[in-house]
Amino acid sequence: MPRFPEFAQRIHRLQPSVFEKYRTRMKEKRSFLIHLHIGDTYLPPDYQLPIDPEFLKSKPYFNRYCNTFGVDSFRRMLESKLNEDNGFKVEVENIFATSGATNALSASVLSLLNPGEEILVLTPCWPFFPGMVELADARVVQVSFYLRLYQEPELNISGHLEKYLTSSTSALYLNTPNNPSGKVLNLSQLRQVAEFARKHQLWIISDEAYDGLIFDKHQQHCVATLPGMFEQTLSIFTFSKSFMFAGLRLGYLVGPESAIRVINKTMVHQLYSPSTLSQYMMIEPLKKRHSWIPRLRDHYQELRDSSIRQLEIPVQSPEGTYFLFFSIRDYLNGRTYWQVIDELIEAGVAVAAGEDFGKDFGDYIRICFTGERPERVKLAIERINKVLLKKS
Amino acid sequence: MPRFPEFAQRIHRLQPSVFEKYRTRMKEKRSFLIHLHIGDTYLPPDYQLPIDPEFLKSKPYFNRYCNTFGVDSFRRMLESKLNEDNGFKVEVENIFATSGATNALSASVLSLLNPGEEILVLTPCWPFFPGMVELADARVVQVSFYLRLYQEPELNISGHLEKYLTSSTSALYLNTPNNPSGKVLNLSQLRQVAEFARKHQLWIISDEAYDGLIFDKHQQHCVATLPGMFEQTLSIFTFSKSFMFAGLRLGYLVGPESAIRVINKTMVHQLYSPSTLSQYMMIEPLKKRHSWIPRLRDHYQELRDSSIRQLEIPVQSPEGTYFLFFSIRDYLNGRTYWQVIDELIEAGVAVAAGEDFGKDFGDYIRICFTGERPERVKLAIERINKVLLKKS
Known about the structure:
Two copies of one chain form a homodimer.
Chain A (H helix, E strand, L loop, with lengths): L9 H4 L9 H7 L4 E2 L17 H6 L13 H14 L9 E4 L1 H13 L5 E6 L4 H8 L3 E6 L1 H6 L5 H6 L6 E7 L11 H13 L3 E5 L25 E6 L12 E4 L2 H15 L4 H6 L1 H5 L1 H22 L12 E5 L9 H11 L1 E2 L1 E2 L10 E5 L5 H16 L3
């Protein structure tokens, strides 16, 4: 009976935000501190049009509630984007708008997992996902995966995943391109994940937040578009990454109509619908995406390459996303991991701590090479080099 | 083990949206149908300023993530609004921005209630609240309350509520002004609710969505501002009602700092934060609220009075909100309740069905008198009169 002043138990299983524990220290540093710990873009919005006086005239009802599945014209744009760019064959009824990928993931987890049930979470993983599973009173089973694929592209995926399966496993959380490792699954790897899920009747929650942010000659494939997988997969997208509009909190969920209706019901009980205005505002950027996203990708790829060149310790070059994720174990020089993180903050760089991405990554750090202006990122990497290469 | 294609059990306990069951019928009727079933405003936004070309220059980072507690300048405006208008004595640390009141309520329920625990839900109540409790695997205990206060203002509230208390009761859901009944608790009634909650150590989730929409000489009081109640109360506000910006999905939660930090953590796992742009856009309307809200209230009060005058069956005049909620039992004339609802849709009026507001209200309907233009509301009431007064 957790009456006032107690809270529900599930809340105690949540980890604080990756950034929460640094907040006081970071406040002291303020303008001196370069923020490489958040995944975001330094670029201002490229689309003047939505903030045009004409916009108000053309969208007189942006202030009102919308259909909880989303604004019709926006969903129709998403339908053609998914079919043209991502290899889907969907209709408007397979899509609904959400408040970012976060909201789509959270509504999916609550809709799929009973208390006590397990979900295979391939790691390293986005830090907030395990907390969503805790909020549903379900259980996270971490499976070290993405870094392993860099080292061992021919890994027997089914054999690897089967070791973690129990009679309580209901679903699998996949994220390609992967935050934080930048790993992009190739078609053969993705087919093995799909086959495993089909064999064991697991739902796939496929987090495609980094849709479009893929470098070099790597190819993006959506697991839902593989034969027989659409019915079993919830594919989740956002406008926060390749579209650079995290501040609008807009994403979308794609899946079989029956699941869409169920998960929308959950979302309605979490926030009713995403912003009507945000949906209207993203129609034009969606139309212009083919001229914009390739340029953004080239720019980010340059930033990736220059960051890796400047960093004086060897790191895996990411195949997608905008992160570098690497172990600092060999650079502790007698210091503890947390002493190094503190020294980094003292030197003016905030990084994300590895343990937030999974239990096997306690000696890793993640940095985002696009969240601050390039000259600031450069300065931050200079500081990282100094702290990490310091002799004890 | 609800693997694919099954969903989690909690989803089956959710009622479909009030409007879901009418969707097909309503689509057939489209432009002919007058929508009185949604609580919204017909008025276009009054604030040109946020959609000004200057806005982009002054807020260059509206596209980026914000602090999950909200944009600083926005929270500071909320602080002065709460202290000046609502009798609070709060600081920025007691407030965080949410995606509407819906999101604040949902995050609060998940943070306070363990599976199997009970919350006293005073009814008639907003239809989505019980579903939030179901998503947390907790239990709703309905307590018929607001209509009773119209009939019996001197009701012994403590005695009435105590009958529903069990050893599993953790919290109480209060909503004044109440949707759908329009009841506004007076100070003496509110004090009794507070005393009851304090005596039994119950958290109060105080839904103040209709803040500012109060008619005649009724006074608004926030339960959190009563002596000793702040620590025990989560007060929840929105920009969807008196500010008319439902489409921005913006609200805020006010409470003791310890609770704010816990509930923010839950919200982060539901959607990260509300829209950065929405927060910037509501700063100016907040500044201008004293010139705008009294005019809106007067206008809505006129609409209320003209609607009641036109309606040919007697209804309780609401003390706040923008709804009329009344029984149609005496007007069935041999028809079932659902036959009448169908006849109303056939005649071109969508209304909200009473059972969605609680088990004791199966013969009620709710209509919103501000969601369509006044001449459309007038036409809709003419149609309601025809259907309800039809002889069998």
